[in-house]
Amino acid sequence: MANLQPHVGARGVMFLAVSYTLTFVGLIFVGLRAHGASRTKNGRWRWDFIWIILATAFLIPAVAISTVAVLSGMGSHVKTLTFPEVFKTAHYNYIALFVGQPALNFVKFSVIALLLSVQGPDAKKRKYFLWFLGALPMLGSIIQTILTFTSCVPMERLWKPIIPGECPRSAVSFDWNRWQGVQHGVIDITLALWPISIVWNLNTSKSVKFGFCVLMAVGIIPGLASFIRVTQLNQLKSTKDVTWDMPLFSVWTMVEAWLGIILSSIPPLRPLFLRVVYGIRGTNLGSSKTRPSGGISRMTGNHIQGIRTVEEGGEKSSVVDKGDVMINAISVSDSPKQDAELSNGGIMVSHAYTIEEDSKDH
């Protein structure tokens, strides 16, 4: 590979730095989900986690193939490359984009599965609409793949335009690709704002409502990345230095996909972070006061024997006042049966904590 090193241009280095950083952070979040937010109470795999695993399984080879494209010349100026190197770069870039494309859809499926678990089983119309939002870009991606690889005859002319042939459907393929980018952005933003409709009528404090919405609204960022990707696609169509401008389009595809995985992992991982911070058993808190982020519960006073999740203790939510200890606990289980029992008009909140007070006098 040493003979390929001179072709790693500045934008190729940028692409690799961004892609590898996002991949590293993304795998950390996926690993954390595998450890603390991958199964329901009855031991079954959570669907939001399954979709994230599938998205990751497509993204990793996409990053690997993109690396080969960079080593072949993506990110370098055309004038520094030979024709075979330019064609090889374009070929690998096409493969990488279409290998990674399903990941964009699987991330949306993961967010939808998470939203369905929160809004409860009774909102059937909302459930069908959410899955419609997921199916629409998936169908569009299938059409995009067919249009792209049938746009030129022979197909090889797609990345090697000097060979004899024609590309009668290239304009249609380009327009559909642009429409797909806009559609992905709109759907990402819609899913990010969807929790507002879930918690709007929830009988709880505004701070809790706001916190829940913010946790989910970070999904707007991948949507914005999708819109930027569309602008780069327009630039790529008119460029005269295709290998130099190619990474600007490809990197935003990686940003959209990996940020979707990372940011959609924040809400389901929040209970794990709370359990790590507040779940140490046998801790003497003295007369200190502590309030977990999000305003879920409040504790004051004396020795606390242990803090555990409702999923671990198997207890329902309640407001308990035991002397110096006051708990405002809101619980949920991943079990569909318990989901129905604990729902409040189709509204559910998850993973609050119960506290056991030592009955002995101190």
Keywords:
mainly alpha; Rhopdopsin 7-helix transmembrane proteins; two-stranded antiparallel sheet; two-stranded antiparallel ribbon; about 5% strand; elongated; disordered N terminus
Structural account:
- It is a single chain.
- The protein has a single domain (10-268), classed as Rhopdopsin 7-helix transmembrane proteins, CATH 1.20.1070.
- The strands form 3 sheets. The chain has a two-stranded antiparallel ribbon. Strands 3-6 form a two-stranded antiparallel sheet.
- It is elongated, with a radius of gyration of 25 Å.
- α1 (10-36) packs parallel to α8 and α4 (124-149) packs antiparallel against α5 (170-199).
- The protein is mainly α and 362 residues long.
- It contains 11 helices and 6 strands.
Question: What is the CATH class designation?
Answer: Mainly Alpha
Query: Could you say which structural class the secondary elements and strand pairing correspond to?
Result: mainly alpha
Query: How can the largest sheet be summarized?
Result: 2 strands, antiparallel
Determine the N-to-C terminus distance. Answer: 71 Å
CATH architecture: Up-down Bundle
